[in-house]
Amino acid sequence: MKIRIILATLIVLGLALGTVAQAKSAEKxxxxxxxxxxxKDKGAQKEQKNNNPFTQLNLTQEQMAxxxxxxxxxxxxxxxxxxxxxxxxxxxxxxxxxxxxxxKEQQAKLTKLQAKGKKQDPLSQIGxxxxxxxxxxxxxxxxxxxxxxxxxxxxxxxIIKKSRLAIQNIxxxxxxVKIKELSKQGHSGQPNFLNKxGxxxxxxxxxxxVNQKMRKQAKDRKTPEDRMKLSKTxxxxxxxxxxxxxxxxxxxxxxxxxxxxxxxxxxxxxxxSKDKKTKKERPDRDGKKTKKGKSK
Length: 296
What we know:
Layout: H1 2-51, H2 61-80, H3 84-101, H4 104-120, H5 130-149, H6 153-170, H7 173-185, H8 201-218, H9 224-241, H10 244-280, E1 281-283, E2 289-291
Antiparallel strand pairs: 1-2
Helix pairs in contact: 2-3, 2-5, 3-5, 5-6, 8-9
């Protein structure tokens, strides 16, 4: 009888030890995955912080609290707005209220940072219609609101992914192709002209070395100003690798591209103005144009 009790106790202990060992083994296997997820989440947080111009204004705690309150109220008002125009007015008021919280120096710096961001945004280079812009503003406003409720960087990434998909569904096939090209070229939209300069194998290796060095250093650059300086330094180093003829050709290609972008911007502005004018007038039953909302 005693032997049976002892055997039963040993069996129970063996099973318990085996369960503990399995749990520890599973936990050990899970640790690298957890570290990798934590690393990605931290990277996402850093990227979001660097892309937010308000993090570069040296705001006081009081300013941050007021801006947060203004944004929350604006999100509530935007939800209650019954048209894209009303939502646009809510966003304009939010911008005005936030500016009233900032100092003149902070306002100037914010304007500069936002202008840079707008210039780098591929959406600003594909000729969006006023209706598309209004829809995109609504999507972005809803994404911001959802992002405030998100508890982890991973949830925020999912929200961003969904908003980007929603924006893609608004674009025409031609705009989708254009934005894909711009994304490949980089945020600035400027193509890589070096492959048109007839570089020698030695030059290609030297350029690749400069680009690799720049990518490593870019990880430690937290502000757009720092990254712009790094990009300028890299360009200067690449220019030293080129021959005088190649440098002249590069300048010519960059000038042609800048003129082309200026023409596209002008054409888009004219198109937007024409669409706005057409929208204000509509033909009546007899084919005569009357002002929208007024009877003949």
